C-alpha cells in the first residue's frame, strides 16, 4: 500500500540566531518526550499548490512559531525525502502520504526571542522551544528523519558558529 501513496511536498526551516544556534521546537503531542528522539524538531510544513518554497518556509514560520522575522540565507540544493515507518502509514500525515519530500532552507533570525510565539496558532504544533547547536540535531530527530537531520547538520555547518 505505501508504494502507491505519494510523498507530501514540504518545506523545513533551519533558523539560526546571531550566535549561530538553531531553533528547535518540542512537539505538543509529545510533551513528556523532553529528552526522547523525535520530541524536538525543526519547524516544517506543507507547501500549498503553486506556492514558491521560499515563500512557504516564511509562511510556515509565521504559522508555527508566530513570526516570520527571518531571511533566507541558503537553500539546500536537493529535495530530501523520508518514508514513514510501516506503523505510521495510513495514520500520520492524514493517512494520505508515504512520507515527505522536503526543501530545506537556512534562515537568519531577524527578531528577538520575544517574537517567537508558539501560542499564535489556536492549535499549536509545539509547546516549547529552545536554541541548540546545529550538530545536536541528529540526536534530537526521530529515527526515520535522522538521516535528513544529519545531512542538514553537515551541509549547513558552514553557517553555524
From TrEMBL:
Motif (Nudix box): 45-66
InterPro entries in UniProt: NUDIX_hydrolase_CS, NUDIX_hydrolase_dom, RppH
Protein species of origin: Elioraea tepida
Protein name per UniProt: RNA pyrophosphohydrolase
GO biological process: nucleoside phosphate metabolic process; ribose phosphate metabolic process
Family, as annotated: Belongs to the Nudix hydrolase family. RppH subfamily.
NCBIfam families: PRK00714.1-5
EC identifiers of the protein: 3.6.1.-
Cofactor: Mg(2+); a divalent metal cation
Gene: rppH
GO molecular function, one term: bis(5'-adenosyl)-pentaphosphatase activity
Domain Nudix hydrolase span(s) in chain numbering: 6-154
Keywords assigned: Hydrolase
Role, per record: Accelerates the degradation of transcripts by removing pyrophosphate from the 5'-end of triphosphorylated RNA, leading to a more labile monophosphorylated state that can stimulate subsequent ribonuclease cleavage.
N-terminal signal peptide: none
Amino acid at each position: 500500500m505505501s508504494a502507491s501513496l505519494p510523498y507530501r511536498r514540504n518545506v523545513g526551516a533551519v533558523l539560526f540566531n546571531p550566535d549561530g544556534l538553531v531553533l528547535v521546537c518540542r512537539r505538543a503531542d509529545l510533551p513528556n518526550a523532553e529528552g526522547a528522539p523525535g520530541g524536538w524538531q525543526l519547524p516544517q510544513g506543507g507547501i500549498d499548490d503553486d506556492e514558491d518554497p521560499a515563500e512557504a518556509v516564511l509562511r510556515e514560520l509565521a504559522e508555527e512559531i508566530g513570526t516570520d522575522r527571518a531571511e533566507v540565507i541558503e537553500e539546500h540544493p536537493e529535495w530530501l525525502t523520508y518514508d514513514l515507518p510501516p506503523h505510521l502509514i495510513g495514520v500520520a500525515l492524514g493517512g494520505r502520504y508515504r512520507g515527505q519530500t522536503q526543501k530545506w532552507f537556512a534562515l537568519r533570525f531577524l527578531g528577538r526571542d520575544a517574537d517567537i510565539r508558539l501560542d499564535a496558532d489556536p492549535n499549536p504544533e509545539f509547546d516549547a522551544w529552545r536554541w541548540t547547536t546545529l550538530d545536536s540535531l541528529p540526536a534530537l530527530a526521530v529515527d526515520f528523519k535522522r538521516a535528513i537531520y544529519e545531512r542538514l547538520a553537515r551541509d549547513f555547518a558552514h553557517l553555524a558558529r
